[in-house]
Amino acid sequence: MNGEYTIYVRDKDMNIVGMVDDYKEFTATLQFCDVGTWQLKISCASQHAKLFQPNTGIVVHRKGVDRVLFSGTVTGIQKYWTVDEDSGPGALIVTGYDDNYIAKYHVCYPDPLQPISHQDWDTDANTDFPSSRALEGLISANAGYDSKSSPFRVPAGYDTPGDGRQDWPYDTFGDPVPYSVRYDNLLDAVKPIATKSGIGWRNAYDHQDRKIRLECWEVKDLSKLVRFSPEIGNLKEFVYSMNAPKCTRAVIGARGEAHLRYVESYTNAEAEEAEKFWGIVAEQFFDATDVPIMRDAKAPWSDPIIDPNYTGQGDMNLDKALSMIHQKGDTHLRENGPSSNLQLYPLDTPQCMFGRDWWIGDIVSCIIDGDVHSDPVTKVTISDSASGTSLTVSLGAQGTTASANVYTEIQSLWRQLNELKSRR
Question: CA 181 to CA 284: how far, in whole Å?
Fold first, then answer.
């Protein structure tokens, strides 16, 4: 297209067989410690269209960036024709995953260094390995060099470090993160090791070896160096919002029939603070008949009692039953409490370029309304077409309420904004 990205096609033997420069549209999404996706649209009349076959893949480079930006395999090929835009020979729409798909499609064996007939261990577990060693070991033993349970488990052209391998031993950086797996999905098993220890990993094509190689690295805190803001001119857009709670008082109904049913209106400090902040009292009823507590038929207005007919396992007393109700209340209030949304859209610029100056997993900062918000880069989507190129970045738990402190942060931003307005 415009020369920003170079796309090569690799064959089933991992050889580069062509460079595609006449595609119509290309998009790719990179995700930190997860599987990325890609899509390419090309005219069927192009001589390059026939390069895209099952068991082939792509390797993407970016001008000014030394590392391979993206590599992946073909998982879908679609012929596309319309009377308007893609008449004549039509177009191919080729889709695929990045090479992290290997972890997505493998299982963690209890004893992966043994044949499939010997998988009689309870779990594969460790508490002492450095996180890089644990992560690389799980991948290598279940999908790579150290996989001994079956000769056919390792995808063609995939290479990893291994035990006793002189040319490529396991890395030993990162704090230990305990793991215990038994037929777990391999991607799900390595995700918490990476995120808890501050390391990143990916599978990427290596031109020299003509293989897909496992990479593992320590993520960088670039929050003081890589900054985005309207004043600098490299922040395209930001949006933050707050929403009132749906529930501040949980009306919980436990056991008992009619006047013997135990009902409690439960709230907590966070919900009370939300009532003051928003001026809203919001009640919701939910059923908790699984908690064996009720009113005493002999004295229905006295303190509640444990259901005389309770036959559950384990000891049960009044304090424990009340604690169960309050835990349910806390959960309900949290799930229906005040919410917030924070979305930040940094711009990729020649002065601060993705792939060269910052990378997936690195912590960067955005300055909005005078407040510095630092988060890791979790997802990057690149697009290239005749209309131009773009790069969209997601930071942290952007667009969700998954971040535990995001509501508090936005409350602070809102207060600062109002203080600025009052001084004008």
Answer: 40
Radius of gyration of the chain (CA): 28
**With b meaning 16 or more CB within 10 Å and e meaning fewer, what string describes 208-217?**
eeeebbbebb
Over residues 108-136, the pLDDT tens digits come to: 999 988 888 888 888 999 999 999 999 99
With contact defined as beta carbons under 8 Å apart, do 366 and 228 qualify?
A: yes
Q: Please answer whether residues 7 and 63 qualify as being in contact, where contact means their C-beta atoms are separated by less than 8 angstroms.
A: no
381 to each of 61, 66, 80, 313, 412, how far by Cα in Å? 14, 19, 23, 51, 30
Q: What is residue 212's predicted lDDT score, i.e. its pLDDT?
A: 98
Global pTM?
0.82
Show Cβ contacts of residue 134 under 8 Å, excluding neighbours closer than 6 positions.
Answer: 126, 176, 177, 179, 193
One-letter amino acid of 368: I
Tokens of 123: 């779990």
**Amino acid in the structure at residue 77:** I
Q: What is the pLDDT of residues 195-221, one digit of tens each?
A: 999 999 999 999 999 999 999 999 999
Instruction: Report residue 188 as tokens.
Output: 């799900």
Task: Check residue 124 and give its pLDDT.
Answer: 94
Backbone phi, then psi, for 320, in 5-degree steps? -65, -40
Residue 200: per-residue pLDDT: 97
